[in-house]
């Protein structure tokens, strides 16, 4: 992964638009967040291989970045994105790494299902 | 350390073994006791991907698989099983699925000692789900045939069993080093502190702690 280049990521988002694709979306604080700090309210969400088709999508913000995808009947978005990669399987990987370099959010698009 | 017929270690994540059990595993192997390590997931959902990143969410499983194999090699383990479940999903599996995985392993290996997490006291939901499955499987075995269960309890104090694994610390450090994607950033500092005699770290690395799990009929 490398730091996000907005123009490059926008191009990649465009290539996945108006196609039936697979989405991986997660946010996480880590399973130990409330163990290390009892006042910390740990919440996260995870969806793997949602089958979606978006009309258009956009990357915005000064960095960390936000990405939103407009579906025919709804929306997908993620914030805190810092890094990207188009991997050897042609999957678009967007991730937000926090100050310690740990994944805090991931938003990924693929033409084929991600490994279960 | 008590000599065993066969040891079965069951943890959900690559690296769960490294800090708390790798010395004990190495000691049993040095005794000539067969040791099997069944690792339920590949830690696919770890947040550490290296800094700067050396992995993505999608490439991490293959990297961690390799690291787990290297850690097993460092310990001298020759029966490593990767069970193919997905990190952070164990507590959501259909009832009985994990229990029957444990039952099959026990049936095949006939261990005299099982090592896993203490259910309810192991912080991570995967740890607790694993410990629960082990406990349920063992509870169904008649008392006279039931293997001993040594559990790791992260939030429990006063362990029943404390093994000195000083003799195996170098192997243990190698195992920790093998999990580079997870511990890479902290390893050099930890090793330096250990070698300079940091009392807390020496104590923690050279000893491994277990709770002897008691069943209802014990």
From TrEMBL, chain A:
Source domain of life: Bacteria
Specify the protein name.
DUF1806 domain-containing protein
From which source organism is this entry? Geomicrobium halophilum
Quote the InterPro entries the UniProt record gives.
Answer: DUF1806, YojF_sf
| Gene3D superfamilies assigned to the protein according to its UniProt record, in alphabetical order | Hypothetical protein YojF
From TrEMBL, chain B:
Molecular function (GO) terms listed?
hydrolase activity, acting on carbon-nitrogen (but not peptide) bonds, in linear amides
What the entry lists under InterPro entries is as follows:
BshB2, GlcNAc_PI_deacetylase-related, LmbE-like_dom_sf
Q: Which domain of life is it from?
A: Bacteria
Could you identify this protein by its name? Bacillithiol biosynthesis deacetylase BshB2
Q: Which organism is it from?
A: Geomicrobium halophilum
């Amino acid at each position: 992964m490398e730091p996000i280049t907005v123009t490059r990521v926008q191009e990649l988002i465009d290539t996945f638009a108006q196609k039936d694709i697979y989405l991986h979306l997660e946010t996480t604080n880590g399973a130990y967040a409330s163990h290390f700090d009892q006042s910390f309210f740990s919440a996260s969400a995870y969806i793997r291989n949602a089958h979606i088709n978006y009309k258009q999508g956009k990357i915005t913000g000064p960095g960390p970045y936000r990405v939103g995808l407009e579906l025919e009947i709804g929306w997908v978005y993620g914030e805190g994105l810092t890094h990207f990669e188009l991997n050897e399987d042609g999957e678009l990987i967007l991730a937000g790494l926090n100050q310690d370099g740990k994944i805090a959010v991931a938003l990924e698009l693929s033409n084929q299902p991600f490994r279960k | 350390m008590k000599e065993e017929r066969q040891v079965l270690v069951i943890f959900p994540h690559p690296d769960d073994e490294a800090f708390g059990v790798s010395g004990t595993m190495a000691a049993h192997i040095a005794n000539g006791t067969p040791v099997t390590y069944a690792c339920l997931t590949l830690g696919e959902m770890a947040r550490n991907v290296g800094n700067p990143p050396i992995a993505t969410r999608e490439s991490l499983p293959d990297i961690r698989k390799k690291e787990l194999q290297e850690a097993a090699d460092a310990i001298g383990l020759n029966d490593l099983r990767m069970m193919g479940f997905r990190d952070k999903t164990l507590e959501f599996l259909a009832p009985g699925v994990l229990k029957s995985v444990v039952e099959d392993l026990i049936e095949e290996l006939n261990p005299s000692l099982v090592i896993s997490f203490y259910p309810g006291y192991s912080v991570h939901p995967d740890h607790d789900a694993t410990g629960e499955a082990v406990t349920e499987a063992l509870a169904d075995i008649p008392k006279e045939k039931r293997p001993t269960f040594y559990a790791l309890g992260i939030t429990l104090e006063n362990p029943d069993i404390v093994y000195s694994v000083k003799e195996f610390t170098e192997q243990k450090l190698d195992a920790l080093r093998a999990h580079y994607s997870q511990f890479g950033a902290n390893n050099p500092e930890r090793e330096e502190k250990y070698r300079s005699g940091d009392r807390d770290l020496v104590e923690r690395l050279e000893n491994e702690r277990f709770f002897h799990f008691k069943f209802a009929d014990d």
